[in-house]
Amino acid sequence: MEEKDWNIIAKEALHDDFAFDELYEHFFPRIYNLIYARVKDAATADDIVSDVFEKLVTHLDSFDSTKASFATWLSRIATRTLTDYYRWQSHRQNVEWDDVFSPKVDDKEHPDGQLLEQEGKKELLLALGKLSEREQQIIELKFWGDMNNKEIAETIGISSANVGVILFRAMGTLRQILGRE
Predict the structure, then answer these.
(1) Distances (CA, A) of 45 to 33, 39, 96
(2) DSSP 3-state percent helix, strand, coil across the chain (nearest 5)
(3) Residue 109's Cα: distance from chain center in Å?
(4) This prediction's pTM
(5) CA 105: distance to chain centroid?
(6) What's the chain's average pLDDT?
(7) How far apart are CA 166 and CA 181, in angstroms?
(8) Which of 78, 58, 72 is nearest to 7 (CA)?
(9) What is the rounded average pLDDT of the residues 63-86?
(10) Which of 31, 99, 100, 181 is 20 to 30 A away from residue 16, measured at CA?
(11) CA proximity to 84, closest of 122, 118, 48, 34
């Protein structure tokens, strides 16, 4: 299946509701997961995601595909909106790293399976908490934001190679902390 050119669809969305709906349907899960991973509250995530897409509608005419891909441009809007939210809160909340790689609730049939999963998540939460803020941000963008290294680099303003190095080292640190090879 051929990958859609979201830059072209974004330009079409200025005048075509169907194109906008296509953008929304494709990018909503990515943006929601990215925001939810930080705030860990569905109502707050809904509000912030609404703000992100409101800004998308308001500023879509300023999107320039020669400066960044649409995915990167939208991710920047999301990260800036999240930053604005934390500024508005006037203090940074301690973000719980629960449901780290799957923010969706997974129904386990057996209590033993649930207990093992919870223990594994707690270990991972503690390990992630030992990483730097930048390492945590890159992991969030990679796994919850479903972004590639180039998109992450464009979003946070570092080189793609640097993203790869930071991600590689952060994953290595997690393996060491968790005692895995």
Answers:
(1) 9, 6, 14
(2) 70, 0, 30
(3) 29
(4) 0.57
(5) 18
(6) 79
(7) 18
(8) 72
(9) 88
(10) 31
(11) 48
Does residue 46 contact residue 33 with C-beta atoms inside 8 Å?
no
Find tokens 């973000």 and name the residue: 95
Rounded to whole angstroms, how far apart are CA atoms 13 and 32? 20
Per-residue pLDDT, averaged over 30-40, amounts to 87
* Segment 122-135, tens digit of pLDDT: 777 777 788 888 88
| Cα(46)–Cα(111) distance, integer angstroms | 30
- The answer to whether 170 and 139 have CB atoms below 8 angstroms apart is yes
The pLDDT tens digits of the residues spanning 109-119 come to 555 555 555 66
Type of residue numbered 129: G
Pair 54, 165: CB distance under 8 Å? no
Q: Which two tokens stand for residue 171?
A: 């994953």
In terms of Cα–Cα distance, which of 163, 164, 48, 33 is closest to 101? 33
Entry field: residues in the chain: 181
Q: Is the separation of the CB atoms in 40 and 140 below 8 Å?
A: no
Q: Which phi and psi angles does 86 have, rounded to 5°?
A: -65, -35
Residue 96 DSSP symbol: P
Contacts 24+ apart (CB under 8 A), 57-63: 57/20, 60/10, 60/13, 60/14, 61/14, 63/10, 63/11
